[in-house]
Design brief:
258 residues; eight-stranded antiparallel β-sheet; seven-stranded antiparallel β-sheet; 15 strands
Length: 258
């Protein structure tokens, strides 16, 4: 695709190295009847923990098996609400989201990725690495294809695969990035564009780190959200406008005094 992963990116609007806990993060459990596996459904292990668990410590975001008792069957995301960082998320169509991901691919970890354009769990986009734990090389009970990198659109509860790359592999930690601009949507790993959809340019809305059935747990660090046409909802723009008015009054007063 024509989208660059590193050149001409918008300015950083929010970055998080997880040295502390920002109020914008929260957990979201997805509805299990709404599957993000095109033509397949999530494997439910009722005896295991079904919820997204996360904590921020030692300078990174730890998810599920990393912070729970393990043997997890979670399905959802640790969401970041851009409006908590004064970003007008509903109108942005040019942005980039990235994070350094530690997937812990040995063992029984299933899926990790970046959610974007999230309205609700029936309508969102997802860039994910699927079924990458080494024990899933010949597994048929869990949905998806072993070590597939995939770009998915979920619309009205129906998941569609927009692009994918099989036999994908990366060493921990790797940088996973989504870039959306006038040319479409690209998914990059370590600054290399691997997936592309020219037709899709979703508005930013909510974003997050996706996790499904990660028994050993996964980590994210150095989360970045980039966007140019910032519609800030903080008072800063209003204050700026007021300062401008005051400045005009000051100049007018000065002229009158001469």
């Amino acid at each position: 695709g024509p989208i660059s992963c590193s050149a001409d990116l918008p300015a950083i609007a929010y970055s998080d190295n997880f040295s502390s806990t920002h109020s914008g993060w929260s957990s979201v459990n997805f509805n299990r009847s709404v599957s993000s596996w095109p033509g397949d459904s999530i494997q439910n292990s009722g005896s295991e923990n079904q919820n997204i668990h996360w904590s921020i410590n030692s300078g990174r975001l730890a998810i599920n098996g990393a912070v729970s008792s393990g043997g997890d069957n979670e399905y959802g995301m640790v969401r970041f609400d851009p409006s908590a960082a004064s970003i007008g998320k509903g109108s942005l169509e040019q942005y980039a989201i990235s994070a350094d991901i530690t997937a812990n691919k040995s063992g029984t970890n299933n899926d990790v990725g970046i959610v974007f354009g999230y309205v609700n769990d029936s309508n969102y986009y997802l860039a994910r690495w699927n079924k990458y734990g080494t024990r899933y090389a010949r597994n048929t009970s869990f949905p998806g294809t072993y070590r597939r990198l995939e770009l998915i659109k979920v619309s009205g509860g129906v998941a569609t695969s927009l692009d994918h790359r099989d036999n994908f592999d990366a060493a921990d930690p790797f940088n996973l990035e989504v870039v959306v601009n006038s040319q479409g949507t690209a998914v990059c790993v370590d600054d290399t564009p691997l997936l592309y959809s020219a037709a899709e340019r979703p508005k930013l809305n909510d974003v997050g780190v996706f996790s499904c059935d990660n028994d050993v747990g996964v980590y994210a660090d150095n989360f970045e959200l980039r966007c140019d046409n910032l519609k800030r909802i903080s008072p800063s723009m209003r204050e700026l406008a007021l300062h401008r008015v005051h400045l005009v009054h000051l100049v007018v007063c000065l002229f009158h005094s001469f």
